[in-house]
Amino acid sequence: MSDSPPSAKRQRTEEPTAHEITPIRSKIWMPFGDLVLQVESTQFRVNRDILARHSPVFAGMLSVPQPPDEPTLEGCPIVILSGDSAKDWELLLEALYEPIPLIGYRNKLFNDVERSDDYHVVLHPELKKLLAVGFEKMMTYQLREYEWLENDTIVPSSSCVTLQSCIRRRVHLRRVLTWNKRTANIRFFMLHAWQDDWGQALCNRCAKAFEDTFIASGAKAWEALPAFFGFSGWAELTPPTDS
């Protein structure tokens, strides 16, 4: 009999596979969907036709008959997308199913880009995805960071001298900034420069508070912009200077 101690049981260090993860149902779960996408631990029930219409990659993949032993959920085949982010796919699918923030941008994102010389540039599917996710992140950021337009946090200021008038003006400015009446779309405004006439009809104290907050919010949004499209910051996008 050997005197050596028994070998320790090898601990499992591998990441669980997609089949071993307990899936979570996403809020994107179409009752008449005929395909389930699983990204990380999140599942999305979607429509084949929607995916195929917007993605040549999916159109080609879905045209191939699936093996009979493929896993299904509620009668829908499950397609596992390894290496992708569930959050990115959630944003992309929200864009495909036309949520309010992207209504005004959808055609620009998913159709050909027409140039001035009458040629069309067809965007690569991955670039379309990057743009869709980026725009969705931008609009989500805008709704969150400019919530002060919706309440009394900034206007009226604590030293306001025309309370009701300033409140009415703030409500009017919120409509002007956030809604495009001509196209009936939410307006992307967070990188706009300050316009002096926005302070009109506000008392001097509220006008100053509104202007300072708007400019500071815009500067913060500008610094955050590269991250919406997967970059670490402006330094990554700045070409090196010749020494």
Automatic annotation (TrEMBL):
Residues 1-20 are annotated as: Disordered. Residues 33-97 form the BTB domain. This is BTB domain-containing protein. The lineage of its organism: Eukaryota, Fungi, Dikarya, Basidiomycota, Agaricomycotina.
